[in-house]
Amino acid sequence: MQYQNPTERIYFLAEKWRNGSISKAEQSEFDQWYNSLENSLELQTEESRAEMEHRLYQSITQKGNINPRRSFRWPRFAAAASIAILLGVGGFYFITKERSARVSEIVANDIAPGGNNAILTLADGKKIVLSGAKNGNLAQLPDVRVIKTSDGNLSYQKTPSGQLSPSLINYNVVSTPLGGQYHLTLSDGTNAWLNAGSSIKYPTSFSALERRVEITGEVYFEVAHNTAKPFRVVSAGQVVEVLGTHFNINAYSDEKNIRTTLIEGSVRISGANQTKTIKPGEEAELSSKGISIGRADTEEAIAWKNGYFRFNDENIESIMRKLSRWYGIEVSFQGSISQEGFNGKISRYKNISQALKMLEQTGAVHFEIKGRRVSVMK
Questions:
Q1: Residue with more model confidence, 282 or 144
Q2: Do 122 and 258 have their domain in common?
Q3: Do 343 and 279 fall within a single domain?
Q4: Same domain for 141 and 262?
């Protein structure tokens, strides 16, 4: 059935999808509209990428009754190893002339995406499963109240008693399982978003000299500005120091290096007997050889926080590590695996079949699902 909403509604939903702010209800509405289109265009022989983009855009504007004279910023197309790709509502759908017979098998063994799920461990060892906890006060500590807010996040609110002495400071830990993510606000107003399989250890009230937290996995920070009290993030072999800024740290133990990506502000990174400062749009990579600094793909770095996966010339091993954390799956590789780079974007709130179909339809890889085990083969 054709989508009947006015053109302005389609533009509104499409722009929200593009910038990652679309809600689940809006995503469902936009999906329904897009799925009413003929979304199986293929790259014709000798057709250029620009010609394919134009043909796809014409199809969308005609089917959606959109005035093609209006400007709309669709994400740019990219190709890996001459594989044609096609834009879809949840991301890029990779199209080849021969469709894999395994697609129906993937759908039949589908796995749901992760969601807001974490465990709060208090200083006395008490554990609270946050996804099952009721909104409101979770714990009353001498220095703060621990609250689960109406939107399901965790917040620390200082009590009038003020700052405790360092010897009495309590430390809490929030940890996310595979297939989980969570957002919390620390007592100083700093916001932290945890990706799947991550943790953050922090004092319920910060000392007078510094604000120090420890993390594992991947965490995105928006640090409350305080020139008198630097904010320090400790991860494996690295310390990041800021006064107030937005940045992402990827410090998973199964990744080769630690990546720190700066969105705004300034951060100083120490590790491997080096100290370096990076500027917005830059990324520091800590390896056994030291700290290297380069330009960052900031959209890719914080895609997870904005609700989607983004692959930028990324190999299948790296992609499957991301999928395994979010969907809580075990991944194995069989035989010789493609080393081609994949490019694309897909919502994290799709079932795993959508991501695997996207990859499998390239013809470069195939998948087999048994329970929560996914085998990757060429």
A1: 282
A2: yes
A3: no
A4: yes
If phi > 0 it is left, if psi is from -120 to 50 it is alpha, else beta; for residue 28 that is alpha
Q: What is the mean pLDDT of residues 51-61?
A: 50
User: Please, which residues have CB within 8 angstroms of residue 348's CB and are 6 or more apart in sequence?
Assistant: 113, 114, 304, 307, 308, 309, 326
Instruction: Tell me the CA distances in angstroms from 42 to 82, 94, 98, 99, one per residue in order.
Output: 13, 9, 11, 11
In sequence order, the 6+-apart residues with CB closer than 8 A to the CB of 71 are: none
Q: Give the tens place of pLDDT for each residue, 125-141.
A: 999 999 999 999 999 88
CA-to-CA distance for 233 and 237, rounded, in angstroms? 11
With 0.85 as the threshold, say if the pTM is over it: no
**Boundary (domain end) residue, out of 270, 301, 332:** 301
Domain of 3?
A: 1-74
Mean pLDDT of 82-95: 34
β-bridge pairing 231-235 and 258-264: unpaired
